[in-house]
Design a protein that fits this description.
Layout: H1 11-16, H2 29-35, E1 38-40, E2 45-47, E3 55-60, E4 63-67, E5 74-79, E6 84-85, E7 98-101, E8 105-110, H3 115-138, H4 144-155, H5 170-177, H6 181-192
Antiparallel strand pairs: 1-8, 2-7, 3-6, 3-8, 4-5, 4-7
Length: 215
Amino acid sequence: MNGISLAAEGPAARAAARILPGNAAAAGRAGLARRWGIALAAGQTLLHHGQRGPLWRVAEGWLVLLRPDEPEARPIQLAGPGDLVGVASLVDASYGESAVALTPVRADPALWLAVAEQHALARIALRQQQRQAFEMSLVRSGTVRERLRHLLALLVPPGGVLARQALPSLKVLAQIVDSAPETVCRELGHLFGGDVPRPRRARATRAAPLAAPAA
């Protein structure tokens, strides 16, 4: 992945265009959502700014959310495991941003939501966006090494170690932390030379499982 770019039509757009069963039993919605979920390789697009589609929940991996800008899209937020993506769909609006896989991603659509569930998820999304704004401020301010340390700490799997070869390209990392690829390359050398990124504490706000309403 040489840079953060948007494919004309991603796997999610094709999946959302399928005819979904309209009479699914409420108790089976979570399983059906997983069945209709998709896997994305790094660089593939989950959703496009201005399009309409379902709400998505990230099951694995990380997405970067982008706003259209010139000469290239501008990163505004990061979405990781448990996060909701495409929250504008909760108010029947077009997506306000595009979402591109920063790492390999698995995402599940939130299907057949009752009104009460939509309201609950809207509250979760509000808290989530407040956290995401804070996380993005950490990867866009301070020294480049500090920005990278915050970004890499997010990307580390829980209880795991982040390998340098598993990272996105230097250009993508530079675009996210607002620096030059050469600077990012130099600072990664310092970080992986001894100051190995480790997982941050678990984030407090997570999207709740999309369980069927009580009978």
